[in-house]
Amino acid sequence: MSDRCFAEIRIETRTGPVAVRATADAVVGIGWVGSADGARDETPLLAEARRQILDYFAGRLRRFDLPLAPAGTDFQQAVWAAMCAIPYGAVRTYGDIACELDGTARAVGTACGRNPIPIVIPCHRVVGGNGRLTGFSGGDGVETKRALLQLEGAMLI
Fold first, then answer.
1. pTM
2. Which of 53, 72, 90, 140 could make an S-S bridge to 76, C-beta 3.0–4.6 Å?
3. Average pLDDT, stretch 9-29?
4. Category of 5 on φ-ψ map: left (φ > 0), alpha (ψ -120 to 50) or beta
5. Nearest to 57 by CA among 91, 18, 109
6. Based on the structure, what is the number of domains in the chain?
7. Alpha helix locations (H) across 93-141?
8. What domain range includes position 20?
9. In whole angstroms, what is the distance from residue 55 CA to residue 113 CA?
10. In a shared domain, residues 85 and 34
11. How many angstroms separate the first and last alpha carbons of the chain?
C-alpha cells in the first residue's frame, strides 16, 4: 500500500475502465478513468472487489457484499444507504428518497452526484420524476447510467 493508506486497482468494464480505491478495511472510491493501465496495488479486498464488479457486469451478481467507507455528511450517508436499499433492476426517484429522508430532491441529487462509490452504491438507480434519466457524474454521464440500468434489466422511458 502507498503512504496515503490506500491501494488502487483498475478494471476494464463495459462502461469503460474504472479505478477502485480501498484502505486495508474498506472500499473508499470507484471512478471512471481514461485507461485500465496503471494502479495495480491488488490487496485481498481489492481482488474481491474486482471479482464482484466483473461478476456484476457479467450479470452474475445482483448485490455487492463489500465493506464500504464512503466519506460524506450525515445526509449524504443517509442518501447512499437509501440507494443501497434499491433492488437490482429497480429505480426510485430523487423525490421518493427526499420524502423518505425529509429532504429535497435537489439535495438528494447533490448527494447522488457526490457518491464516491458508484456502481456498488447504485446511484444509477435514482431517476428524475416520471422515470426520466437525469444526471450521472461517472463515465459518459447519462449514457453510462442508461447502460447500467439496461444491464440490470430496468424498465426505461
1. 0.91
2. 72
3. 95
4. left
5. 18
6. 2
7. 94-101, 105-113
8. 7-57
9. 25
10. no
11. 44
